[in-house]
Amino acid sequence: MLLQTQLPLLRPQTTAHLAQTMTLLGLTATELYQKIEAELATNPALELLEERYCPNCRRKLVASGPCPVCSQPRTLDNSDPIVFISAREYFQFSGMTSAEEEKSDDDFIADCEDLPTYVLRQIAPELDPQDYRLTVHILANLDEDGLLSLSNLEIAHYHHVPITRVENILRIIQRADPVGVGAHSPQEALLVQLEALGETQAVPPLASKLITEGLELLGRRQYSELAGLLGVSSHKVREIAQFITQNLNPFPGRAHWGDIHQSTAAEPKAYYNPDVLIKRLSEKEEESPLVVEVISPLAGRLRVNPEYRQALQEAPEDKVAEWMEHYERASLLVKCLQQRNHTIMRLMARIAQLQRMFILKGDDHLEPVTRAQIAQELGVHESTISRAVANKTVQLPNGRIIPLKKFFDRSLHIRTEMLKIIEVETKPLTDTQIAHLLSERGYPIARRTVAKYRSIEGILPAHLRSSNRLAVA
DNA sequence: CTATGGCACGGATT
DNA sequence: AATCCGTGCCATAG
To answer: Do the beta carbons of residue A371 and residue A407 sit within 8 Å?
Structure first.
């Protein structure tokens, strides 16, 4: 609302017929991406600025000013998270990992493992036992996106082996389930996936050229330049780009971090591209501030093209209405985007502060908080928070991707406490007994409620539980 | 008689 | 206004 008055509106009276709020807050990064892309394609008044790197940490920055991570004076109280908008190449992930329709029990267990273990398990049979150490070393150095930051040379050198051996192993790794894991860059991951895909289905012939030579441009959506580069029409380029975004995933590691807890309760849907990343500033130190990256689906900053505004003055008679429309839509979008970013940043800052322990330590440290409380603290309407929280996902420092909703789960800590009790039980405890134990530990819960929690967690009733667990309902 | 799940109610949350 | 959640009551299964 404050922003509104400061915006340079060319003709305030004509904006009246437009909705003064475009609902962006409720959108996922994926949805936002689509929305903006559509707008960019049709609205010449919108302009995507060159992306900007922090020279130090290579993060892509969206807001102007110094890199919020690197320029931070480290004297901060570590309960204060560093929150900022970070741009990433954004791809919608849908295809790939097609092997996931029906999960066998094995796969279910696999999901509970970390990524390196999961990959190792698949490829172990193919490996020469001699290469084990080497493989483990490689897998241990995957980052949270499933990419490898070491160069082949470094690895070869470290193990005193010829580089071809490293390459061979990498080839095997990259073909393992999240296809493309262990690639050195998003680009390489895409190429590997493309190749794998090409073995079973037709792929656009120019796709690999587009990836090798035009990925930068693709990230910026500069289709006409790409068309020139590839020597085909820009329509064709869009087609290929669409194929890529729908079938390939530049961050293979993000495919396998679904929310394990919920998977019993009709929620087989895994989450891929998180909307927010939370990390620790320093991996080593326990007491380090959290770094919260709110993902902006676009690399580069979006703004209203100043030249377009200029051109508006001299618009030919018959175009003036259309151009005006463009201009207004563009500035509205930019404004709403800013507002969305602003709200999400404030929200995440507060969440990261409140739930620090949960983020670092896990489920049983969740502080029960309601959206209403946060809304009051931030001075916004409750529904604002609701929208901001809905349908979004967060990647925690441990790599798990969870729905943002989970931060507002009122009973999670009690349920995990209950799980712990059941975990160590010697003989199956009845609901009444569990209820009693829980109240002794400070959670006064009705017996009936224990039963509900059990079913949420997919735990069988006592008489069907033979002293050991491992029963999947 | 005990343990549990279904149904439904009321209050809180969204 | 609609939905979610904890709970009590009651029927049923063992």
So the answer is: no
The Cα-based distances of A326 to A11, A329, A330, A379 in angstroms read: 13, 5, 6, 33
* Greatest Cα pair distance in chain A: 84
Q: Can you tell me which residue has its alpha carbon closest to the C1' of nucleotide B3?
A: A430
Rg of the Cα atoms in chain A: 25
**H helix and E strand count, chain A:** 19, 9
Q: Where are the alpha helices (DSSP H) in A248-393?
A: 306-313, 320-354, 356-361, 371-378, 382-389
Q: For chain A, what's the residue count? A: 473
Nucleotide nearest to A408 (CA to C1'): B13
Q: Are A197 and A246 in contact (CB under 8 A)?
A: no
3-state SS assignment for residue A459:
coil
pTM equals: 0.66
Q: What is the pLDDT of residues A174-203, one digit of tens each?
A: 888 778 888 888 888 889 988 888 887 788
Q: Residues A346, A378: contact at Cβ < 8 Å?
A: yes
A412-464 placed in CATH 1.10.10: yes
Indicate if CB(A122) is under 7 A from strand C.
no
Q: Per-residue pLDDT tens for A141-167? A: 887 677 888 888 888 888 888 889 889
Per-domain residue ranges for chain A? Answer: 2-89+273-358, 98-253, 412-464
Residues A134, A138, A139: CA angle, nearest 5 degrees:
120
Beta bridge partners of residue A444, listed in sequence order: none
Q: Which nucleotides of C are covered by protein (CB under 7 A)?
A: 5-9, 14
Is residue A95 within 8 Å of residue A101, measured between CB atoms?
no
Neighbours of A423 (CB within 10 A): 9
AA letter at A150: L
A368 contact to strand C (CB, 7 A limit): no
